[in-house]
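#structure-requests
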Amino acid sequence: MNVKTALVLLVLALATIFALVCVLLTRGRAPSTCQHQPPEQEGTDDAQSLVFADLTPEEMVQVVRYLQGNLGVRLVDARRAKPSDNCIASVDVQVPAKAEVLRFLDGGGARPRREALAVLYFGDQPEPNVTEYVVGPLPAPGYHRDVTVQKYGGKVPYHRRPVTGKEYVDINALIQRELGKAPHFLAACCESDGTDLAALTTAPRGFKSGDRMTWFVLFHDVAGTGYYLSPVGLEVLVEHRDLRVSRWRLRQVFYNGRYYPSMADLEDAFLANFMEVVRIEKPQAGTVLGSMRPRRPPGSPGPLQYEPQGPRYSIRNNRVTFQGWSIAFGMNPNSGPRLFDIRYRGERIVYELSLQEALALYGSNCPGGMSTRYLDGSFGIGRFAYELVRGLDCPYTATYVDRHYLAESETPKTNQNSLCIFEHDAALPLRRHFSDLQSLYYGGLRKTALVIRAISTLINYDYVWDFMFHSSGAVEVRVHATGYISSSFLHGRGTDYGNRVGPHTLGTMHLHHIHYKVDLDVGGQLNSVETQDMGYEVVKDPWSAQNTIERPYLRRERLAREEEAAFPLNAPMPRYVSFASPEPNKWGHPRSYRIQIASSAGEHLPVSSAMERAISWGRYQLAVTRRKEEEPTSTSIYNQNDPWTPTVTFADFIDNETITNQDLVAWISVGFLHVPHAEDIPNTVTVGNGVGFFLRPYNYFDEDPSVESPDSVYFSPEQDAGACGANPLACLPSVAACAPHLPPFRYGGFLNL
């Protein structure tokens, strides 16, 4: 054997050994189709989105330290502050003015100063009040300025402040002392000594500005279930306006259709046999109305949604990108989810999309139910967006994001995993066609969307907030209501106000109204409002003059002023309402985005009501106004406890200014009437209890942008539809073998309450 032959054999042997090693090393590994495919990076600078970012816990701490050292007053931690103390109520980011932000994002200008908005309750003052300060620059504050008068036209009276957790604790202590004055009555009516009764607040608190009197409804409290379905028929009115807790008083008592001056008077009436007592057995955990404990053992698992090659979206800082979409996300501790700088294919479509308020308005023949108009922003829609349950609240493999807030404390808190982001397959074609005439083919595209979701628990109700971004360029916003209904004790003509859902439980009728701010920038900041609807014209047949035909035609109109673009609730509205750019598309039509609302809201309140102006945004299903920095929100957290002199009145935004080629905001109301029924036990289901709206491109593009989607499918009889190269659906059998690695299930949502 010569040297050349030996070398050839040696090379072959080494190659064989190398191949065997490769086989051994890759054995047991996922096939190449399972390798993570990182999503394409969008062109947006991720660091730019930080101009909208929520405060970090470290920034919150610095703001608190600055306030403690620079206001010249003693600050008490809100967790233990009395009404007569000064305390920090909340700290949130102060989003810079839009003009500053756009100079930075689009014009190469300087990054705006990062600032915080601090809300303080000053009870230890000659004139107690609520004051708001802008504090900056972050992360090392060096100044503060009082913006209360600038924002609201004057100081905020102290009685308008939201009720704190400490105030509720003190009220509950008062109620417990008062219940102790009627031991025989409580034992007879409720098998209770009062300590096992839960008190549910109502709101607003009185009948005129300055009042702070609240009805509290009492329920049997059973561990492990919602008490909201077990009213005992007893309600108490507590006056708690005085800065000295010792002067708070129980002013009235209601039981089973009758009113009494005090618990002692109720006890006397019971002992004298002057009242009818409905004896209610104390409910047991296993049989209590509304128990959510499973009644059957677990079955086989249901469908699992996962990404075979990893997520097709990317999250960096507070920005998520997905197939041409780019969105900056955040959470206001009061008003809830807020999105900024929403772009598609590099063009900004929406500057701000944010939840403003959630109203729940009840009817009943009991005082607590009939007086309840909850404005949930004053309780904290974002603050009470707790940790999401993986695999139920959101897909198991979704990306979960922590949110931080500082409210009623000097220490930041974290709601971990309280916002989720995922790609959702709707199991529905976005578009499709099977051609059976002339040429034969099939073409289609799956409907998938990026979803940003949070869920807020506001006392008894849970609201699911969804923001969805479709490959057609459409934005979908929707809210679903679930959780427990609120209830009243069934007596008299109670069923005039709802349905009986338990032995003594009236499911009380109520309205849900949700309000959103949508600052659209369609093809730039300057937009106009255009409407289109249909009419019929009767014309002679051009080919048969003796006959006529009813021909539909389009009525097009450009609205000139705000009054024209304020569409009252439940009144006819043009079917097409669009924000139009001065710039035309390829076909000569204004590039536009259409607002399409899906809602069945009931009347929010008669306009004649003394408190209607506080929720005057509810008058309109859609109102378009000129954008103004001094009109950042449609409501205020101070409206709840003084709706008779509202701090912010949305109706005043509509002052008939011109809306042609202006920077405009769409204010959208959605909602529904809910008459509780037997199937709301134990919980209200999301099916049929969802409302929302779409922002849809309308001549904004020259064609449907989803034609660029890599998920498109097309094949004809001449092709082998089973070949992976010809049809991406044929690739799924191999890709489906890529079972995801699921992280262990963990839940810490109870740790931060």
